[in-house]
Write a structure and sequence with these properties.
The structure is a single chain. Helices cover 14% and strands 29% of the residues. The chain is built from 1 helix and 17 strands. Strands 10-17-16-12-14 form a 5-stranded mixed sheet, with no helix packed on it. Strands 3-2-1-5 form a 4-stranded antiparallel sheet, with helices on one face. It is extended, with a radius of gyration of 43 Å. The termini are far apart. Residues 214-234 and 251-255 have low confidence and may be disordered.
């Protein structure tokens, strides 16, 4: 008789540790996929908005050329400073009249450069080359839209770097103007008629002389020897001498103490990404008539970060003193253009001060 035995059935499956590892891998891959999709969408919005903006710039330029725009009738495009999300385009949209329409960037996008109006003349040219920077909050980077002096427009990179073209020296031309003294042309002498005889001098018309023998209206009884009858002997009635009234002396009002004020030493700094001698620039922020200590800070206006900014010293003691703001250009197409730097003190000392930094390649 065989003893009772039970055959053990083998179990197949996953352990809890294996399942946790699998779920962790799925979560990581899913997160990466979601982030990749969000990044791709943000990139698409940035590219699409920048290229649409460039298209409207090109339309404004073409409209000025088509209409052969006169002075004051040119087409132009305008932005409204760092942090703004809209721009306006003024042109003929097909009605025969010049009108202004406003357009918005897509969500999460702003302009990062200073406010600017770019006006195209009848040849499609502008006064100076300009760079617009469209900033993406999600990507934390800029996409440049360049407009050259001749009106050429590029997105993402600069194909027509006007700043790299050296200035043209115009030679002075001399000797192209006749500076000799001209020979005077004789003029006929007046006073003779056609037969050579002297012309008669016109007789002047006599002017009547006014009679000086006027009759005065005086009440005197004197008999003067003159021709007039106004020589009276009566004495004029004396007029009363007015008594001066003392004026009121104003009482001086005490002048309050001077208030804290601040100032900045410059309004514009020009930097270059390629010229080492123009890589950095400085501005001096000064506090006067203050009290206590102040903390000085400086930052780029808007959401961008196209410049390196440092403050030294960051603290001003005694209510009077200065701090040096050093601004350094960063490389890259997204860091070109005109940016606004704001400097302020804490506690507040007057209004915040601003200056512009223009960065070329």
């Amino acid at each position: 008789m065989k003893p009772n035995s039970r055959t053990t059935t083998q179990q197949r499956g996953f352990t809890l540790t294996q399942m946790l590892i699998t779920l962790a891998i799925i979560a990581i891959v899913s997160t990466g996929g979601v982030l990749g999709i969000k990044t791709a969408r943000a990139e698409f919005r940035l590219q699409n908005s920048a290229r649409l903006f460039a298209t409207y710039i090109e339309k404004a330029r073409a409209d000025s050329i088509r209409r052969h725009a006169a002075t004051g009738q040119e087409s132009y495009i305008e932005t409204f400073g760092p942090g703004s999300t809209s721009y306006s385009v003024t042109m003929d949209y097909g009605s025969g009249l010049i009108e202004t329409r406003t357009f918005d960037l897509e969500s999460g996008l702003t302009f990062d450069t200073a406010a600017k109006r770019v006006t195209f003349d009848w040849r499609g040219r502008i006064a100076e080359a300009w760079v617009f920077q469209v900033h993406s909050d999600y990507l934390q980077r800029n996409l440049p839209v360049d407009v050259s002096g001749s009106g050429d427009i590029t997105v993402g990179e600069q194909h027509f770097p006007d700043q790299l073209i050296p200035p043209v020296e115009i030679a002075e031309v001399s000797g192209d103007v006749d500076t000799s003294t001209p020979t005077p042309t004789p003029t006929p002498t007046p006073g003779f008629g056609g037969d050579g005889s002297p012309e008669a001098t016109p007789t002047p018309t006599p002017t009547p002389t006014p009679n000086g023998n006027g009759n005065g209206n005086g009440n005197g009884n004197g008999n003067g020897n003159g021709n007039g009858n106004g020589n009276g002997n009566s004495s004029p009635t004396p007029t009363a001498t007015p008594t001066p009234t003392p004026s009121v002396t104003p009482t001086p009002t005490p002048t309050p103490g001077a208030q804290c004020s601040s100032s900045i030493s410059t309004s514009l700094i020009n930097l270059s990404q390629s010229d080492a001698t123009k890589k950095s620039g400085t501005a001096t922020f000064t506090i006067a008539s203050g009290s206590g200590s102040y903390t000085v800070s400086a930052s780029q206006v808007g959401n961008g970060n196209s410049l390196s900014i440092s403050v030294s010293p960051t603290r001003i003691e005694g209510g009077n003193g200065s701090s040096v703001i050093t601004v350094t250009a960063k490389n890259g197409a997204g860091n070109r253009g005109s940016f606004i730097i704001q400097v302020s003190a804490s506690p507040s000392c007057g209004s915040a001060r601003q200056f512009t930094v223009s960065v070329s390649n």
